[in-house]
Amino acid sequence: MNRSENSADNFPVRYQESDSGRRIFVPLLLVLCISLSSYFYIFQFATENIDNQAQLEMKSRVEVALNIESRRLGDLLTEYAFWDVSHLNLIQKPDSKWADENIGSYMADNLSMALSIAVRGDDKESIAYRNGKEVKGVLPKIRQAGIDPLIALIRKNTRQPDPQNAFITVDGQLMLLAVDTFTPEFEDSPAADGSYLLIARSVTPDYIASIGDLYKIPNLRIARGPISDANLFHTITDLNKNAAVTLTWDERSPATAISYQVAMPLTGIFLLMVLISAWIIRMDIYRRQQQEKILRDLATHDPLTGIYNRRQFFQLAHQELGRTNREQSAMSLLILDIDHFKQINDQFGHLAGDQLLINTATVLSAGLREFDIIARYGGEEFVILLPNTNLNQANEIAERLREQVEETALQFENDSLNVTISIGITTYRFHEETRELLARADHALYAAKHAGRNRCRVASA
User: Fold this and answer.
1) pLDDT tens-digit series, residues 106-128
2) Residue 226 confidence (pLDDT) above 70
3) Where are the chain's structural domains?
4) CA distance 266 to 252
C-alpha cells in the first residue's frame, strides 16, 4: 500500500517537470527561429541592396575612369601646345629631327601614342607621325572620323581654350584623341595662325586592362559578345555616333560573398554575427571611400608632380578670393618659372626634365605653409596662392623659395643638375578676378626673367 501510494505520488511530479520544460523550450525555440528567420530575411535584403549598389558604383567608376583618362591626355597635349619651341619646330620651321625626338618616336615609345599630328592654320599637315613613324596624308582620315566640330570649337574660344577630347575610329581602330591650338607661353589667346596639335592613343585590350588596374575595376576588358546585364557593360561611342567598343568587367558582390562566409554559423552565434556583418559592411564602405579619394586625386592633381593641376587651382583660387573679400584680409600670389628649362630638356632629354619638375615641386611644397596652395600652371611654370599674406611677407617667402631651389641639386644618372627660378609677385586687390591677379604676377615674372633670371620681382602698381 505504501509502495503504491509512493508510485502514485511520484508520477505526477515527474510529468509536471517534463511539461514545464517543454513549455519553456518551445517558446524559446520559436522565438529563436523567428529571430533567425527575420534576421536572414533582413540580411538577404540588405546584401542584395549592397550588391546592386556595388554594381552601379562600378559602372559609374568605368565612366569616370574614361573621363579622367581623356583629361590626362588633354593635359599632356597642353604641355606641348603651350610650348613656343613646339610651334617653331612643328609649324613655323618644321624640323623633322626635333619633331621625332619630341612628338614622334618619343611619344610612341614612352607614352604609347598612335598618332601625333601638327596642323597649320590652313588645315594642312605640317608634320605627322603614326606609331612613331613619319607619314603623309593621315589628316584626311582623321577629319573623316568627325573631328571638324572639335577644331571649330577650339578655334572659336580665343581665351585659353581647354583641349577637346573624343573617341574616333581610324582604319577600324578606336582611338582616344585630344586636340588643342598652339598658344604662346605668355599669352592668353591661341596663336593667330590657327594652327593646332593633335595626339591620339589606340584603345587596345592592354590599354583597357591598364585602366582597370589603375582604377581598381576587376578584369576590365573589351567584350567579345553580347552582355545581358545592363550594369556590367559600357559602350564607347565615337565622334560619328558609332558604337565602337563595348567594355565589360567582373561582377563585384561583396555582400553576397560576406553572406556565404558568415551566415551559416549564425544559429549558435547570432549576436556575434550581427556585429561581424556590421563591421565588414563598414570596412567595405571605407574601402570605397578610399577608392573614390584616389579618383578625386587623379582628377585634381598633376599626374607628374603630384601637386594641384591647373583646373583645380582655379577652383581653389575662386574659393579663396571669396573668403578674402568677405574677411577683408590680405592675400598674395607667386608665379614662377624654371630658368632655362628647355635647354635642360634639349641637352639631357625629357626624363631629366620630368625629374627636375618633380624635384622642384617637392622643394617648393616643403617650403610652404600648410594652408598655402601650389599648382602646376603649365609646362615648367608653377603658381602659389598665399592666403593671409601681405606683399612684404610674400616677398620674403619668394626669396626663401628661390634660394632653396638654387641650393638643391638633382642627381640624374652621372650628372648633377642645379637650376634656378624666376618669380613674379603680386598682392590681391579686393573684388578683382583670378585672371587679373595672374596677369599682374605674370608681368612681374616676365620682368624678373628680362632682368637676368634667378630673381624675384614685385608687380608694379
Assistant:
1) 999 998 999 999 999 999 999 99
2) yes
3) 82-203, 310-458
4) 24
Half-sphere exposure of 347 (CA within 13 A, CB side): 8
Query: In 186-253, where does DSSP find H-type helix?
Result: 205-214
Q: What's 310-458's CATH class?
A: alpha beta
Give backbone dihedrals phi and psi of 371, rounded to 5 degrees, phi first.
-95, 0
C-alpha cell recorded at residue 313: 587651382
Cβ partners under 8 Å of residue 33, min gap 6: none
| Cell of residue 124, nine digits | 594642312
Cβ neighbour number for residue 208 with a 10 Å cutoff: 20
Q: What is the pLDDT of residue 409?
A: 85
Query: For residue 299, what pLDDT is reported?
Result: 78
- How far is residue 422's CA from residue 406's CA, in Å, rounded to a whole number? 11
Fold of 82-203: Beta-Lactamase (3.30.450)
What DSSP letter does each residue of 134-195 carry, written as one string?
E-SS-HHHHHHTT-HHHHHHHHH--SSPPPEEEEEEETTEEEEEEEEE---TT-SS--TT--
Is 375 buried (19+), middle (13-18) or exposed (0-12) by CB count in 10 A? buried
User: What whole-number distance in Å separates Cα of residue 165 and Cα of residue 82?
Assistant: 17
Tell how many helices (H) and how many strands (E) occur in the chain. 14, 16
